[in-house]
Amino acid sequence: MYSQIPKQGWKPALGGDMPDLEATKGYFFQPTVIDNPPDDSRIVTEEPFGPILPILKWSDEEDVIAKANNTKMGLGASVWSSDLERATRMAKQLEAGSVWVNSHFDVAPGVPFGGHKWSGIGTEWGVQGLKAYCNSQCLWLKKTV
To answer: Is the pTM of this model over 0.85?
Structure first.
């Protein structure tokens, strides 16, 4: 994703430099914020799995929910607001397996974790996750012959 910054003409508001992998030990990528990339760009529509994220403009709740759901991905999302009622209302509309309000990536082994859309089918953890390791059997018994 970092190599796409100059190729796509994205404007970093913070970070954005590719590490010199030959001069450094390890693969440290500088946290990066991309300022208002196009809605259809990879940084918006894909899961980068790195310290890089887009900051997008939106006009109202309906617009931001539509933009957030306009992706084939749906692993996790977060809503940040001092208005908990509004944040909860918005969070319930997001098409993601885990949605946090005023935090991100709080997890617990008793709570199911999994994605929606291309981000996964089914869950890990919790009772639902444990059931994935069970073999079910259906027995059909006709009482009359």
So the answer is: no
